[in-house]
C-alpha cells in the first residue's frame, strides 16, 4: 500500500534506485506516480515502476501517453496474476505432487481467498473501473482505443477470477461449510423477479459445485454440509425470491440422491432426514425451472463463461438420470393441466397454466441455443457442442430414453417443446444420426408414437388438400375455383407442430448425409414434391420459409441438385406470365411479405439458391 516514507522520495530531479539502478525523475513523473499510487492504493515505488514501464512501452502503443499506458500495464499485470491463479487451481488435485498440493492448499484454498474472489464479481467490472479512472483528479481514461484495451483486459480479469473461484470450490471440499456460509446471504438477498447479477451467478455456481456429489464425495463432512443446506431451504420466507430458493432446493435433492446411489460408503448421509422427492416437488412449485430459464440462462453474464454452462448442464442431466419417475409424474400432471386449460378455453374461460414440464424442457433447449447467440464466446460454443454428444447413442441410457419420449403423442405444447429441445441439442453428426433413428424406428401404423412416416404423411395430406381445392386456373396460391369450396386452413396448433418437425428435419439432414439421402430417396415420403406443393399453396409464410430451408439443406448434396432445380421449375416457384409479370415467390413478396413485413419465404428461398449455386457442377 501507500507509504509516506516512499512518497517523500518523489522530488523533482531526485535519483531513485530501482533494481540497483538510479533513475532521475522529473516533476511530471512524480505527479503521475502519485496519481497511480492513489487510485490503485499502490506503494509509490511500484507506482513509479508502472509509470516508467509506460514510458518504455510507448513504442507499442501509438497515440497513448505514458500515464495511460501505465494504467493498461497495471491491469495487465493483474490479468497475468488471475491467469496464473486460475491455472494452478485447475490442476488436478489428485495427480498434483504432494508438496505442491500442500503449497496450494496452504496459500490459496482459504476462506479469505474465496471471499475476495467472490467479492471481485460484485465490485470489479468495466463500469466501476471506468468511473474511477474518469474522475477529474485522475484523468486516467483515454479515447476509444485506450478504452477498448482496458475493457478487454478487465473482462479477462473477471473471467479468469471467476474460473479460479469455481476451481477453488473443487479444491475446497473440506471448507465447504464455511464457503457456503458466505454464499447463503448473497442468494437470499437476490431481489424478487430479477435476473442474476454476475455476483449472484458466481455465488450460485459455487453453491452448485460445493454441494455436488463430486465435491462432497471428497470430504467426511458431507452429511453436515447437506444437513445445513436442508435447514437453509426449509425456511423459504427468508429468501427474497422463492424461485431462487427453488433452484437451491433442486440442487439439494440432486446431491442427496446422487450420494445415496454413490458407491462411497464413508459419506454417512442417512442421518440427513428429508424426503428427496418432496424437495423436488417443492422446487418445482417454487418455479425453479422458470428462474433457471430467465434468471440464470437469461442473465447477461451466463454465456460468458464455459463453467456456467457445464455446471447447469450437469445439473439438468443428473435430474434426468436420477429422477426419471418424478419427471414422468410432472409430465403427466402437466398434460392433465393442459387438457383442463383446453376445456376451459372451449367454454370461454381463460386460465394461466403453470407449464412446469414445458419449462423444464425449455431449460435444456435455452441452454444449448446459446451456441446460436453471436454474443456467446467461441470457448462456450465449443463446450456446448462437446456437451451435446451426450444426447446421442454415446450418451447414458437414461438420456437416450428421455429423448425417445419425444416420440410419444404429447399435447402440442409438450410436443413442440420436445422438438425444440432436439433441435437445440442436435449439433454433431452423431446426435443427428441418433435423432433420425429415434423417429425412423416408428412404423407408419403406430397410433401411440409419432415418427418421420407420420410427419411426411401429414405433409403429403396438406399438399393434396390444397391441390384438390385449387381450381383449373390456379396460379401459385391464387385460384379461380370451378365451384365454391371452403378455403383450406391449417389449424394453428398443427401449423406450429408441423414447422417444428420441419425445423428438426432440416437440422438433421444438414448434419447427417445418410439421413439426407433417405429424405430424398424415400418414395413414400416424396419430400420434394410434397414440400414444394405446399410452398406453392396459400399457406402461412412461416411454413413456406421452413420448407424452403429444409430443401436448402437437402440441396447441399451435389447428387440432389438437378432434381431440385427440376422440381422448382415444375411447381412454378419462380416464374412469369406471358406479359412479363412476375409470378410465384416474386409476386408473393409484393402481395404478402411486404404487406405483413414478414420475409420468411424470401429468406428461405435465398438459402435454397445459396445451396444450389454453391456447387461447381449443376
UniProtKB/TrEMBL annotation:
It is found in: Nucleus. Pfam families: Nup192 (PF11894). GO terms for molecular function: structural constituent of nuclear pore. Keywords: Nucleus, Transport. One of its GO terms (biological process) is nuclear pore organization. One of its GO terms (cellular component) is nuclear pore inner ring. Belongs to the NUP186/NUP192/NUP205 family. This is Uncharacterized protein. The lineage of its organism: Eukaryota, Metazoa, Ecdysozoa, Nematoda, Chromadorea.
Amino acid at each position: 500500500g501507500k507509504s509516506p516514507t516512499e512518497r517523500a522520495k518523489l522530488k523533482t530531479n531526485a535519483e531513485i534506485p530501482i533494481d540497483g539502478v538510479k533513475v532521475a525523475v522529473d516533476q511530471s513523473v512524480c505527479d503521475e506516480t502519485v496519481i497511480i499510487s492513489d487510485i490503485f492504493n499502490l506503494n509509490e515505488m511500484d507506482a513509479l515502476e508502472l509509470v516508467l514501464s509506460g514510458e518504455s512501452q510507448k513504442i507499442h502503443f501509438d497515440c497513448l501517453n505514458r500515464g495511460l499506458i501505465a494504467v493498461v500495464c497495471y491491469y495487465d499485470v493483474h490479468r497475468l496474476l488471475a491467469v496464473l491463479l486460475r491455472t494452478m487451481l485447475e490442476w488436478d488435485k489428485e495427480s498434483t505432487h504432494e508438496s505442491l498440493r500442500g503449497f496450494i492448499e496452504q496459500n490459496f484454498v482459504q476462506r479469505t481467498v474465496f471471499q475476495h474472489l467472490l467479492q471481485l464479481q460484485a465490485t470489479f467490472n468495466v463500469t466501476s473501473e471506468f468511473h474511477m479512472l474518469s474522475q477529474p483528479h485522475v484523468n486516467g481514461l483515454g479515447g476509444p482505443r485506450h478504452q477498448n484495451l482496458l475493457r478487454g483486459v478487465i473482462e479477462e480479469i473477471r473471467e479468469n477470477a471467476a474460473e479460479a473461484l469455481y476451481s477453488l470450490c473443487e479444491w475446497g471440499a473440506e471448507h465447504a461449510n464455511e464457503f457456503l456460509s458466505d454464499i447463503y446471504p448473497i442468494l437470499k438477498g437476490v431481489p424478487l423477479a430479477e435476473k442474476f447479477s454476475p455476483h449472484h451467478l458466481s455465488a450460485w455456481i459455487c453453491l452448485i459445485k460445493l454441494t455436488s456429489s463430486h465435491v462432497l464425495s471428497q470430504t467426511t463432512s458431507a452429511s453436515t454440509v447437506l444437513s445445513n443446506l436442508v435447514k437453509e431451504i426449509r425456511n423459504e420466507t427468508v429468501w427474497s425470491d422463492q424461485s431462487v430458493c427453488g433452484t437451491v432446493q433442486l440442487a439439494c435433492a440432486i446431491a442427496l440422491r446422487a450420494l445415496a446411489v454413490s458407491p462411497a460408503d464413508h459419506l454417512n448421509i442417512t442421518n440427513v432426514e428429508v424426503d428427496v422427492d418432496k424437495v423436488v416437488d417443492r422446487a418445482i412449485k417454487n418455479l425453479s425451472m422458470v428462474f433457471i430459464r430467465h434468471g440464470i440462462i437469461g442473465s447477461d453474464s451466463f454465456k460468458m463463461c464455459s463453467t456456467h454452462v457445464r455446471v447447469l448442464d450437469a445439473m439438468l442431466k443428473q435430474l434426468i438420470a436420477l429422477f426419471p419417475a418424478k419427471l414422468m409424474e410432472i409430465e403427466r400432471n402437466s398434460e392433465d393441466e393442459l387438457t383442463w386449460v383446453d376445456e376451459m378455453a372451449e367454454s370461454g374461460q381463460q386460465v394461466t397454466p403453470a407449464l412446469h414440464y414445458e419449462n423444464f424442457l425449455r431449460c435444456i433447449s435455452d441452454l444449448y441455443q446459446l451456441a446460436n447467440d453471436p454474443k456467446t464466446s467461441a470457448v462456450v460454443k465449443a463446450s456446448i457442442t462437446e456437451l451435446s454428444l451426450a444426447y446421442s447413442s454415446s450418451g447414458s441410457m437414461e438420456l437416450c430414453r428421455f429423448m425417445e419420449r419425444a416420440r410419444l403423442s404429447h399435447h402440442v405444447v409438450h410436443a413442440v417443446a420436445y422438438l425444440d429441445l432436439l433441435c437445440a441439442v442436435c449439433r454433431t453428426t452423431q446426435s443427428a444420426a441418433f435423432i433420425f433413428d429415434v423417429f425412423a424406428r416408428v412404423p407408419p401404423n403406430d397410433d401411440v408414437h409419432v415418427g418421420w412416416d407420420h410427419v411426411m404423411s401429414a405433409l403429403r395430406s396438406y399438399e393434396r388438400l390444397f391441390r384438390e381445392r385449387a381450381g383449373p386456373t390456379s396460379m401459385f396460391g391464387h385460384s379461380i375455383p370451378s365451384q365454391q369450396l371452403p378455403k383450406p386452413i391449417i389449424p394453428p396448433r398443427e401449423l406450429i407442430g408441423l414447422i417444428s418437425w420441419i425445423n428438426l428435419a432440416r437440422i438433421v439432414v444438414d448434419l447427417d448425409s445418410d439421413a439426407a439421402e433417405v429424405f430424398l430417396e424415400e418414395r413414400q415420403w416424396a419430400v420434394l414434391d410434397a414440400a414444394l406443393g405446399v410452398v406453392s399453396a396459400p399457406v402461412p409464410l412461416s411454413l413456406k420459409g421452413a420448407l424452403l430451408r429444409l430443401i436448402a439443406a437437402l440441396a447441399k448434396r451435389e447428387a440432389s441438385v438437378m432434381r431440385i432445380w427440376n422440381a422448382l421449375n415444375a411447381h412454378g416457384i419462380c416464374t412469369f406470365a406471358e406479359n412479363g409479370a412476375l409470378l410465384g415467390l416474386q409476386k408473393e413478396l409484393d402481395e404478402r411479405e411486404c404487406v405483413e413485413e414478414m420475409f420468411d419465404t424470401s429468406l428461405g428461398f435465398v438459402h435454397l439458391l445459396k445451396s444450389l449455386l454453391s456447387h461447381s457442377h449443376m
